[in-house]
UniProtKB/TrEMBL annotation:
GO terms for molecular function: GTPase activator activity. Residues 133-306 form the ELMO domain. This is ELMO domain-containing protein 1 isoform X2. InterPro entries: ELMO_dom (IPR006816), ELMO_domain-containing (IPR050868).
Length: 327
């Protein structure tokens, strides 16, 4: 009975708020002479703060044209904006900036949806050792991370040197499919120095029989001991969850002036890899068995940071220099 009353109460509160809000919007428009979209564009600078509000306004609009704008094809964005301005009775000649602002935000919105679909397609595609393209990418990863150590064979214990679990890496890609391989290779090729440093650090044992003086003399100050490739696939999963949940909109709407692309997602992965590496060292876990705890804590920290609509990763990509900044 209590549950029923709670549901009924919530329903009436929803109706009340919905009617009140629409009435309030009507009054504000009459007073200011501007529709909600005009007010959003006028009162918010370009980026996530503006685009998130425009997205919300279109999503909860009672008009089907506004709602359908969120799933418009990129080629139809300009026409969609013209239709919305006609619907809102906004003269494009006297308000040219509104059309420009709405178009930029809508490109970001539909681009984000396209990126989610592209990333999901890669995640669902399994690694196929019979596919020469897949094999070529895997070999590139080895050669980039181990340029002075030729593989003795396709099936080899050497794969453990870059953090795979067994003799054949294909089994480790099951969870994230080709997306994990794409991200690892992007990191290795586009920020090679950082990737090699993270790999080197990951290979250092957590504990050593060396004395503290010997350890410091050899510059082994980052003794962490985790599997580079496995952690990379796991951080790919973290980046994927941020993307599909919408949490990554804050970052992407701030750094991609138009449509977010796969490269933006991969740059985000590189940043997360480096930041997790630092976070792992700061947490100083006893062993790899604490990985899930540390990962969950790191995930929560990133989510908190991304709740700030002005937060973004450094837009000039160099993973070694990336850090969260307030725009």
């Amino acid at each position: 009975m209590k549950h029923f009353l709670r549901v009924v109460t919530q329903f009436f509160v929803f109706l009340y708020c919905k009617c009140l809000w629409r009435g309030l919007k009507f009054v504000i428009r009459k007073v200011t002479g501007r529709c909600e979209l005009q007010r959003i564009c006028h009162n918010n600078k370009p980026g996530a703060r503006r685009t998130l509000k425009i997205e919300s306004s279109l999503k909860y609009s009672k008009n089907e044209l506004c709602q359908s704008a969120l799933s418009a094809h990129p080629d139809r964005v300009e026409k969609t904006i013209d239709d919305i301005m006609t619907l809102k009775k906004v003269n494009p000649d006297t308000n040219p900036q509104l059309g420009i602002s709405l178009q930029a935000s809508l490109f970001q919105i539909v681009g984000y949806r396209s990126l989610v679909a592209e990333v999901e397609k890669l995640r669902r595609e399994p690694y196929d050792c019979e596919n020469p393209d897949h094999e070529e990418m895997l070999m590139k990863l080895w050669k980039t991370l181990r340029p002075d150590s030729p593989l003795t064979g396709r099936i080899s214990k050497q794969w453990c040197e870059i953090g795979f679990q067994g003799n054949d890496p294909k089994t480790d890609f099951r969870g994230m499919g080709l997306l994990g391989l794409h991200n690892l290779l992007y990191f290795a090729e586009h920020d090679k120095a950082t990737a090699l440093q993270v790999l080197h650090d990951s290979l250092q044992p957590k504990h050593s029989k060396m004395s503290k003086a010997e350890w410091e003399q050899k510059n082994f100050d980052k003794a962490i001991g985790y599997s580079f490739a496995i952690v990379g696939i796991n951080i790919t999963d973290l980046a994927y969850s941020l993307l599909v949940s919408g949490a990554l909109k804050t970052h992407l709407y701030n750094v991609a002036p138009e449509m977010p692309s796969l490269s933006h997602f991969q740059q985000t992965f590189c940043y997360l890899m480096q930041e997790f590496h630092r976070f792992w060292i700061e947490e100083d876990p006893c062993d790899i068995m604490e990985f899930n705890r540390v990962r969950s804590k790191f995930h929560r920290r990133v989510l908190r940071q991304l709740k700030n609509p002005d937060m973004a990763l450094c837009p000039h990509f160099a993973a070694s220099d990336l850090h969260l900044v307030n725009l």
